[in-house]
Design goal:
Strand content: 5-15%
Order of helices and strands: EHEHHEEHEHEEHEHHHHHEHEHEHE
Largest sheet: 8 strands, mixed
Structural class: alpha/beta
Length: 424
């Protein structure tokens, strides 16, 4: 185990890195590093734009400092990389942030140091893709001069119950001794305990199948929702009835986005195809989930036509843009698919989300948020994200935003079965 007074450096201070840096910073010298100088300034001022860590908890991390200066992390003995691992436009893994972070660490890597990765990857990525970068940039030899670990993140944005310290942490190391060190390091802050995996590849695989399993389960209920729609059966009522069985899994239909569930399966299928296996079930689930935006838009248009609403030039209000409720996270949100499809029908779409920064919405998706929707102005309202903000306002207030003849689509079944005109 590294001495308790040795310095840790956390590379990347987003949804994953910041909570980790704060927790370690409560117990030992920790430097949070990010290339975004504006992000560093905000954190130094006690503000977290992701809302994952409040000002009081930031203040509790008395041994944590923030920097965008590479020299400031040069004395660390342990480097933990927590950068995003997205997919590109062709749904292929984009390791660019991970490899650039590895180059950054390689510039300050010293003999005896440990580099731990938390980013979600396919099995083998740490040792096959990241380690060669570390060796090339540092001039050091893997498992002789420096060592690596892997401990996949399990952050759930917006979840105030399941936090870093209360979720079992999977750990692994490139040597038995490193595995012990990495495990002890995380055990010092994770009260829920740790699980030491047999190898880095096992830990990488465990992470990527966690979200692949969820993706497939949601794909199943999405397909069931489409079947039941054709049968005239309410899906939520079916799921509630089936849920009375003790081992029925409580998944619900919906849009599947975010930084994990809609992305991670493509890392696994990419690796599988590279070794000559062509996945079928995983990709079938992805096709269903990727098509839900178009399906929702089509059902909305059909419902509007049935009420005699002219489609071209109609106005629809979409409530919610984030990928999930009660958080500002826009990463890979699939609400944008609904917006895009409706626009293709010639519908004028307004988007309202009190959780989202307007500049970020414009930068990421070219969407100009509507700050105050006009009452009585819309032919349709789609409740796309189940923010408490919308629940607390209640259905009558949401309907007041629409014209007398309109369609209200409750994608998240936030209200009762007979209270909306359309839902999955």
């Amino acid at each position: 185990m590294t001495p308790s007074d040795s310095t840790l450096a956390i590379i990347g201070l987003g949804y994953v890195g910041l909570p980790l840096a704060v927790e370690f910073g409560k117990h030992r010298p920790t430097v949070g590093f990010d290339i975004n100088a504006e992000r560093i300034s905000e954190l130094q001022a006690g503000k977290d734009r992701t809302r994952e860590v409040d000002a009081e908890e930031l203040a509790e991390a008395v041994q944590l400092t923030y920097t965008a200066d590479l020299e400031a992390i040069s004395e660390a003995q342990v480097y933990i990389v927590t950068v995003p691992t997205p997919i590109d436009a062709h749904k292929r893994p984009d390791l660019t942030p991970l490899l650039k972070a590895s180059e950054t660490v390689g510039k300050v890597l010293k003999k005896g140091d440990i580099v731990i990765y938390e980013s979600t990857v396919y099995p083998g990525a740490t040792e096959e893709d990241c380690v060669p970068v570390l060796e090339r940039v540092s001039g050091l030899t893997f498992n002789e001069d420096f060592f690596c670990g892997y401990s996949p993140e399990r952050i759930n944005p917006g979840d105030k119950l399941h936090r870093l310290t209360t979720i079992t942490k999977v750990t692994a190391g490139s040597t038995p001794e490193t595995a012990d060190t990495v495990d002890a390091l995380y055990a010092s802050i994770v009260t829920a305990g740790t699980h030491k995996a047999e190898s880095i590849r096992v830990a990488e695989a465990a992470k990527v199948i966690e979200n692949t399993q969820r993706d497939l389960n949601i794909a199943l209920v999405n397909e069931l929702a489409m079947i039941f729609k054709k049968m005239g059966i309410d899906t939520e009522a079916v799921l509630k009835a089936a849920g009375t069985k003790w081992n029925f899994l409580p998944f619900r239909p919906g849009l599947v986005g975010g930084h994990c569930i809609g992305v991670d399966p493509y890392y696994l299928t990419h690796k599988a195809e590279s070794i000559g296996y062509h996945p079928q079930v995983i990709l079938a689930g992805r096709r269903i989930n990727d098509g839900m935006g178009a399906y929702v838009s089509s059902e909305m248009v059909k419902a509007m036509i049935q009420k005699g609403i002219a489609i071209k030039g109609a106005r629809v209000l979409v409530l919610g843009l984030t990928f999930k409720e009660n958080c500002p996270d826009l990463r890979n949100t699939r609400v944008v698919d609904v917006v895009s499809e409706l626009c293709d029908y010639g519908i004028r779409v307004d988007v309202h989300d009190p959780w989202v920064d307007a500049d970020e919405a414009m930068h990421e998706y070219g969407i100009a948020l509507t700050e105050s929707p006009e009452a009585g102005a819309y032919d349709g309202v789609i409740l796309a994200v189940a923010h408490d903000f919308f629940r607390e306002r209640g259905l009558p207030q949401l309907r007041s935003l629409a014209r007398d003849t309109h369609v209200l689509c409750d994608l998240k079944s936030l209200f009762g079965v007979n209270e909306s005109d359309l839902r999955l």
